[in-house]
Specification:
Blueprint (H helix, E strand, L loop, with lengths): L50 E5 L5 E5 L11 E5 L4 E9 L1 H9 L12 E4 L2 H27 L5 E7 L5 E7 L7 H11 L2 E6 L2 H8 L10 H4 L9 H6 L6 H4 L14 H8 L9 E3 L2 E9 L4 E6 L7 E4 H12 L37 H27 L1
Parallel strand pairs: 7-8
Antiparallel strand pairs: 1-2, 1-4, 3-4, 3-5, 6-7, 9-10, 10-11, 11-12
Helix pairs in contact: 2-3
């Protein structure tokens, strides 16, 4: 799906088109949708769907209607209806798959109710669009300085100009409600354009900025993840992870989204385990659960009076004891249900063929040298004593 300029060079190094997702084929964008219906023809009595999906900066996408029946294709730069003026975007999807995408995003698949695509972007439109995009970094820096000067508890994470430079959208994050009425006046006076403020969450901010996660890969939110589900600390508890906020938090400051990836598997595996607060009734006294190993299907119990000695039991044995306790019967002891697990002998990774596993093999010559030095010193002393006696 990538363009030819993104392929590898002669020496194996990646070329890269350096367009950051705005190349002609739109294959570099992280939110590109593969049109698997492009090679299929419509039935004879069915008209093509006039809805078009258009992408803007930071993966922002909207649906428009092709009212003028323009000959469009994926990657075309078009001028779309906006309020006020017009905006410039890139066509990412056409045809029947747009209808599917609209249903997926809970929008009515009625193209006549959508805003219009005016025309294909002319060279003048592209020049104005590129000029205002080059201003966004400086405008963002100035806007942050103005917000700091006004003492507002907010962070301006990104700035997006409309394609005709008639409006600027400022994306910001804040933990509390911010009164930015004076800020908008300062922005309008400084940048001489219409101002719109949009608050985004911390996860959306991390998705816009991107980065490398603790796993060594690019952030999921900035590469392929499009929906942000809430993550609770219970997800870490079910997976028996240490509740360390420094390890569980991502670059957005919230709990990592990847905590939800294997949560369903853990919950399914825990269905066979009894609740950890259930006590086992024995003739030696009640026993409480101390530890659970989900992967091996083992539990460790200890008597209430003897909490230092743990007894390893399998899930089947624990469920058997609980079933007997529910019938009003107490087992004799936990020792009767302990199964002997065979200890696997680990194979030696290295064999002592030429002394490769000896850590002191480099120290042996030094010891010999020390002995030789001692012998030579003793010889010299004996020679001196003999020479003194002869004298």
């Amino acid at each position: 799906m990538g363009c030819t300029s993104c392929a590898s060079g002669t020496n194996g190094q990646p070329k890269g088109c350096k367009n950051n997702g705005t190349c002609g084929t739109d294959g570099c964008n992280k939110l590109t949708v593969f049109d698997w219906l492009s090679n299929m023809s419509l039935p004879g009595n069915m008209e093509p769907f006039k809805g078009v999906e258009v992408r803007f900066k930071n993966g922002r996408k909207h649906f428009y209607q092709n009212a003028e029946d323009l000959s469009l294709s994926v990657g075309d730069i078009v001028a779309t209806e906006a309020s006020p003026g017009h905006d410039i975007g890139i066509v990412t999807l056409m045809g029947e798959l747009v209808r599917v995408q609209m249903k997926k995003k809970n929008e009515a698949p009625k193209p006549e109710a959508l805003p219009k695509i005016y025309r294909k972007a002319t060279q003048k439109d592209i020049d104005v669009w590129q000029k205002v995009r080059d201003r966004e970094a400086d405008v963002q820096k100035q806007s942050r300085e103005i917000a700091i000067r006004l003492g507002l508890q907010m962070k301006i994470s990104d700035v997006e100009f409309q394609g005709d430079a008639s409006k600027a959208i400022f994306y910001y994050t804040a933990e509390e409600r911010v009164d930015f009425r004076q800020l908008i006046k300062e922005f309008a006076r400084t940048f001489n354009t219409r101002i719109e403020m949009k608050q985004v969450g911390f996860r959306q901010e991390a998705a816009r900025l991107g980065g490398i996660g603790s796993c060594g890969r690019e952030l999921c939110c900035s590469t392929w993840l499009t929906d942000f589900r809430s993550v609770n600390t219970s997800a870490a508890r079910y997976q028996q992870l240490s509740l360390n906020p420094q390890k569980l938090a991502g670059q957005c400051g919230k709990l990592k989204c990847c905590l939800n990836y294997e949560l369903d598997t853990y919950l399914e595996a825990l269905e066979a385990f009894p609740k950890s607060d259930v006590k086992l009734q024995t003739e030696k006294g009640p026993a409480v659960c101390q530890k659970i190993d989900i992967f091996k299907g083992l539990l460790w119990y200890s008597y209430v009076k003897d909490g230092m000695n743990w007894h390893q039991l399998s899930v089947e044995k624990v469920n058997e004891i609980i079933a007997l306790n529910n019938k009003g019967k107490n087992v004799a002891s936990l020792e009767e249900f302990i199964e002997d697990t065979p200890v696997s002998k680990k194979k030696e990774l290295f064999s002592n063929v030429v002394g490769q596993d000896s850590l002191t093999r480099f120290d042996q010559p030094k010891q010999k040298r020390k002995k030789r030095r001692k012998k030579s010193r003793n010889r010299n002393k004996n020679r001196n004593r003999n020479s003194k006696k002869n004298a």
